[in-house]
Amino acid sequence: MKKVITYGTYDLLHYGHIALLERAKKLGDYLIVGVTSDAFDKNRGKLNVQQSVVERIEAVKATGLADEIIVEEYEGQKISDIKKYGIDIFAIGSDWEGKFDYLKEFCEVVYLKRTEGISSSELRENLNPVIRLGIVGIQNPAERVLKECKYVSGLEVIGIFKDGNSETELCEKYNLKKYQTLVEMLKDVDAVYISAMITEHEKLICDALENNCHVLCESPIFLSEREAISMFDLAKSRQLVLFEAIKTLFFPAFEHLLLIVNSGMIGSVRDMEIACSNIPDDMEKVSEEKYQGSMYDWGSIALAPIIKMLGTEYKNCTLYDYEKNGYNYFTKGTLEYEHATATFKIGKGIKTEGHMVITGTKGYIYVPAPWWKIDYFEIRYEDLRSTKNIFSNMMERAFGMSC
């Protein structure tokens, strides 16, 4: 019996998928179809899949073409599956021509011609029209976002607005339009990404919302509670999204960590220790601007996991800080909850170990530095032989997952 295996996401299953499965089926006597898991799709940058893995498996099953359906969950699984199932032929669409030649060592590799004129991407665009994005402000995060936007289906960057010359270079590099005024750009886009000085955030956000544009803004998003309440109320009244860009929250490993904590694997959380710090190359220049201090740069990031796991209803807050000429180099804070405590240390111009420890009644979780780029953590217990090591690809493309 000749066994054939093929893989795909099979999102919004269409006749192109079915034609490919029919061609694969004709290559042998038994067809195994691998359907990518939700986590695997995220890890490889496929961020706009509309259906869950269960729905996609059911759709493939309903075609009656698959003799067996498996789930593809990790990079390198194809070799393992070929050996495990005794595969004779690996079949895949011709748009992957050459990509899987390395599998010829294990079985025959066949690239099947794809059906022209139909794709899941086109169907997704019809269901969810492309979001036209404008970039406001040019600092380091903005260029990182531009690099990653190409991995986000359903998103098109239109142009950049910011006074100065740096954006001219970026516009030429990424073939974008340079806008002379913010109002001009807001007429052409559906959403804006803001990477500017925090003192400019409120006005920029207000202008965007009043022009019916969704907003994704770098952290920290506001200087005061008044600003936050005012702008979030405005967004809600206009049925728009106003979002703070803390990409750590969208890393698969961080999402996995939250699931483990909520499942009770380490018992009830009783304490959290978090630290973040950096020493910029241009420290002398940075320290001249008070809004560049440690609390402004790291505060939202350090507090995000605490709020996610312990909430906002703390009883007491104690802060210790080191300032010089109005610039905040270091802050240490303690939040006291009804049944837990949390301590955070943040520094800009001071260096410390950037790990996170979550203490529970049954065990604890250790996330090594830099925890805000989490791709690995350990679940530890009294018996160290029971330690569990959790790995996950670090998502540089978390920007796309927050869109």
UniProtKB/TrEMBL annotation:
Alphabetical list of SUPFAM superfamilies matching this protein: Glyceraldehyde-3-phosphate dehydrogenase-like, C-terminal domain, NAD(P)-binding Rossmann-fold domains, Nucleotidylyl transferase
Keywords attached to this entry: Oxidoreductase
Boundaries of every Gfo/Idh/MocA-like oxidoreductase N-terminal domain copy: 131-243
InterPro entries: Cyt_trans-like (IPR004821), Gfo/Idh/MocA-like_OxRdtase_N (IPR000683), Gfo/Idh/MocA_domain (IPR050984), NAD(P)-bd_dom_sf (IPR036291), Rossmann-like_a/b/a_fold (IPR014729)
Domain Cytidyltransferase-like: 5-125
GO function term, MF aspect, one: oxidoreductase activity
Pfam families: CTP_transf_like, GFO_IDH_MocA
Family per record: Belongs to the Gfo/Idh/MocA family.
Name of protein: Glycerol-3-phosphate cytidylyltransferase
